[in-house]
Amino acid sequence: MASNSILADEHILQLLGDGTNSELSDLSDEDDEYFQSTEFDCLLNNFDDEDFNLLLDEDVNDKETEIVPVSTEPRCQTQNQALKSITVDKITEIEETNNTVTNETIETNTSSLEYIEKCNIRWKRQPFVPPNIVLNKPIVHMYPNSIPTPLDYFLKYFPESEYENMANYTNTYAEQIGRLNWKPTNSKEIKIFVGIHLYMGVLNFPRIRMYWEQKSRINTIADNMTRNRFFELRFCYHVIDNNTIPTNNIDRFIKVRPLYDLLKKRCNELPVEKNICVDEQMVPFKGKLSVKQYMRGKPNPWGIKLYLLCGENGLVYNFLIYQGSTTEVKQDIQKKYGLGSAVVLHLTDMLGKNQHFLYMDNFFTSFNLLHALQHKKIFAAGTIRVNRFVNPPFLNDKVLSKMGRGTTFELSSDIPNSNIGLVKWYDNKPVSLGSNFITSGTPDEVSRYCKKEKRYISINFITNQWEVSTNMTN
């Protein structure tokens, strides 16, 4: 039987607790969740970048800042001059502050990067003044008089000596697992084995056994290696000795690291073009792998993600494989700049000063990245996420739409030793771009279809947008 005794005051206070738990908290999206200090510290220490990787690939909805109308006129190009006089002439000046900009310097192996805190990033509504760019003369490279064979090119990436190592490690692994009736392989057979895999990648039959079956037999493959020997080598193939893997290993690709290093070494030796870009690329893969990614909109959305530094001709000059929290970027740089910017700084560390124009998308671009590249004499431009630039005071989208398609609005940084420009260009929707060497430039004219007038019209097309879109798609 339930007790009807009256609760003492002390018991009532004990049941009420300290007020941190509330039955109403679940009904509000604005209330902060309560964590005990030890639990919160544990969450911070065990946070893994992989958990939010897919979210990083999504576009961020940027918040626009409403502008209080006043007097200073920035550069603004539009087809509708009447609307321009109503809006642009009434833009207020940003309040000047007397706060001293306190920056932080991060030491790296190759250089020191200056980091500007968000509270010190300020903007002025004035046209961007581009730097005087005089690129260094490119290094003259000697090229062969005749075009080498495809095999010659391939052996530059994977030289002859490596096939001997592959054969040795494959034999070692077969002995370690006690493979019955194992016939030791050699470098010549490993070459055939690698070549068969490359050929299979071109033909792409649905099943491997089909290359040896009578109806679908491929003589180049079947005549050089039997089916059973191929599967035997495939089972034992290794490029390292498993016994050399350290117990505290954090490299998730250590078993293919020698191949990765060979490919990267040769890419780093190639002469780099003037116009380059950084972007993501997927290596198609649907097997079991902890760092497998899904990227919506890619031709092969499932696979292993790489960050590439490429040129206009499609050549890869540097790359970095994504492996979650153990991705090979400097942790102090990533903590300050974010993953995207840390990747760009890592990939461009091999570049010479005053030689290149770099283009990227809004996953990578940030204020401090453009600032760091400016001091490294790398001229960079890219689309931006406005919230990474401390919500600069652009014109509102509605104002730009009333001013007509082709309207641009510029801002420039108001920080000592930092020359960063932003531009917002309006077509059917606004596009925001940032750069340390160019914004609107000299506008070109492009043809766009107008639904309202049911005809093609000419609108202003900014140089920055043209350069970014051109170099990002090459």
TrEMBL record:
InterPro entries to which the protein is assigned, alphabetical: PGBD
Residues spanning the membrane: none
Residue ranges of domain PiggyBac transposable element-derived protein in the record: 149-453
A UniProt-annotated Pfam family: DDE_Tnp_1_7
Signal peptide: none
Domain of life: Eukaryota
Protein's recorded name: PiggyBac transposable element-derived protein 3-like
Species per Swiss-Prot/TrEMBL record: Aphis craccivora
The organism's taxonomic lineage, starting at the top: Eukaryota, Metazoa, Ecdysozoa, Arthropoda, Hexapoda
